[in-house]
Amino acid sequence: MSVVTREDLLEWDRNDPLGPMRAQFRIPAGTIYLDGNSLGPMPRTTPERVAKAVEEEWGEDLIRSWNKHGWIELPQRCGAKIADLIGAAAHEVVVADSTSVNLFKLLAAALRLRPDRRVILSDTGNFPTDLYVAQGLIELLDKGHELRLVEPEKALEAIDDSVALVMLTQTDYRSGRRHNMAEITSKAHGVGALVLWDLAHSAGAFPVDLRGAKADFAVGCGYKYLNGGPGAPAFLFVAEQHQNQVRPPLSGWMGHEAPFQFDRDYRPAAGISRNLCGTPAILSMTALDAGLDILQKAGMTAIREKSVRMTELFIELMETHCADFGFELFSPRDPEIRGSQVSFRHQQGYPIMAALIEQDVIGDFRAPDILRFGFTPLYLRYGDIWDAVQILRDIMTEGSWDQPKFHKRQAVT
Question: Would the annotation count 223 as a binding residue?
């Protein structure tokens, strides 16, 4: 049985070095937000930053803002801030497009670097869009490539010299299980394969060390732990040694070595910038920039320490106070291989989550039966975790989840 009390957790909150960071986010009163792994909340500085970009930069300075306010360098500036969070050099990361588009670009570029191999290796737990993009590229290339899927636990042993590229999401979007980036990358390099990591549930959630792992490529989104807002631009990483070998499949003008010379023939820019394509989305990138500033102030080491403590607490409280209601831990119990989320399975997972959300405890549901809870230490309090579990216990005790309105599936779950 747990010996921790709500009073203990309120004391933890009073002594929490990250506690003051909560004031930098707009969290509705009474809401316990456990879905930052799907959409981060809005930083309080974002409306002012975006308003300035709209009213002053666009409204007053018009097209001059590309130079006067540095719009043209914003993809690289945001990329440098993200690089600090994922163990990369500033010149190895750029913000552009969506995660799916960036994945397509780097998949195609990587396969060009291994023209004699035909296998893309991934796992059955990968996020579906990653698999869809790979399938679409294989069809487009029509050169006999194969998307080979294995169980996540067997990814390491499946890497052999037939593989051109290993494409994995570091943190499983359903369970939060983490692949060992360094081990898998080393195994791939040992047989001559390249590796592309999806960091959608890693960047901003815990320290990532792309350079230390000698990773080749990576992509990630801006609207989860980076708090860039719905549909925020994504980012991509290309290791320095590959940058001038990569031939982007989407050869847009912003990736040209001299875009304002308006040459008829494409010549890729040197370095990471060749992976740009169209005109940057300045307003949404400005919102992302505001979110990144908060993460840089907090530091990933402190974020990870609190994340582990919070996820451990949540598991303990769930297994103490909700033990009789059929919940099964789906996330790894070992925090060393778990991201910043905890998932439980329940055969009535969808209506239970819907009932929780009506009580302003916001997590999300993943088919077929997974209740998913994200833990973002910048704004979440230990007391919130206690309250969330008690609300869930009451919902289960009273059976209030079993109402028709909670069983009706929404378009977004």
Answer: yes
